[in-house]
Amino acid sequence: MEVVIVPDAEAGGELIAEAMAALLRRKPGAVLGVATGSTPLPVYRALEAKVRAGEAGVTRARIAQLDEYVGLPAEHPESYRSVLRREVLEPLGISADAFLGPDGTTTDVPAACAAYEAALTAAGGVDLQLLGIGTDGHIGFNEPCSSLASRTRIKTLTEQTRVDNARFFDDISQVPHHVITQGIGTILEARHLVLLATGEGKADAVAATVEGPVAAVCPASALQLHAHATVVVDEAAASKLKLAEYFRHTFAAKPSWQGI
């Protein structure tokens, strides 16, 4: 696992955006897996700047969604489809036709999960999947003790997750109880996994992901099993890493994942 320690969130966003831009230069039709939340926003802003500067083209790129609420209309401002349209598709000038995501409005959720798995396969798989991490080590909505071989499926949100997400709604009663999420096994099929974590609140989860055992209690630890996984963390999120100095020495000058 490659661990790149950066000064702050903006530096992490720039680094990952350059990796995405390099991928798009090599493979204009690449599939970029994206995540919602505040953590990846510096990545999307930096990538938008590169597209506007002509450093990367997105006319043939496709965007794949990591997870989605069940039961929210697609046009609801807090559906993840709507969030990604505002934060990724529209700023980058990518057509909605190039968007891959599960149908959270369906009455047949298992069929929607299977259909999304099939759509990802038909697209040739995800080339680069951007991930965030929860304070408990979850990725996507794969909470602790999720199967490390899990596929896209429905998950029940924990009460804490609903409380955390209530800030995006008028009150907690409006937060859905269920989501569709790519499973850990599905996530691990992406060719390159890039996890971005910032802030001291993520330090324990980052340490467990990078240096702890591979265990379902920390779903993100499954990244240790991947052939090409990169963890980008700011100084605060890296504060619990025992091998922080090794990572600084090994990857600070020129991370090997750039241009791969």
The fold-level CATH name is Rossmann fold
Lateral strand order in the biggest sheet: 1-10-9-6-2-3-5
User: Helix-strand pattern, N to C?
Assistant: EHEHEEHEHEEHEHEHEH
Number of helices: 8
pLDDT averaged over residues: 94
Uncertain ranges: none
In CATH, the architecture is 3-Layer(aba) Sandwich
* Count of folded domains: 1
Between the first and last Cα atoms, what is the distance in angstroms?
14 Å
The proportion of residues forming helix, as a percent range, comes to 25-40%
Active site: 67, 136, 138, 143
Function: Catalyzes the reversible isomerization-deamination of glucosamine 6-phosphate (GlcN6P) to form fructose 6-phosphate (Fru6P) and ammonium ion.
GO biological process, one term: N-acetylneuraminate catabolic process
Site (Part of the allosteric site): 146, 153, 155-156
Briefly say what this structure is.
With 260 residues, this protein is α/β, with parallel strands linked by helices. It has helices at residues 9-26, 41-52, 80-92, 109-122, 159-165, 184-187, 203-211, 244-251, and strands at 2-6, 31-34, 62-65, 67-69, 99-100, 128-131, 153-156, 178-181, 192-197, 229-234. Helix 2 links the parallel strand 2 (31-34) and strand 3.
Describe the structure in your own words.
This protein is an alpha/beta fold and 260 residues long. It has a single domain (2-251), classed as 3-Layer(aba) Sandwich (Rossmann fold). Helices cover 33% and strands 16% of the residues. It contains eight helices and ten strands. The chain has a seven-stranded parallel sheet, with helices on both faces. Helix 1 crosses helix 2 and helix 2 packs parallel to helix 3 (80-92). The chain is globular. The two termini are 14 Å apart.
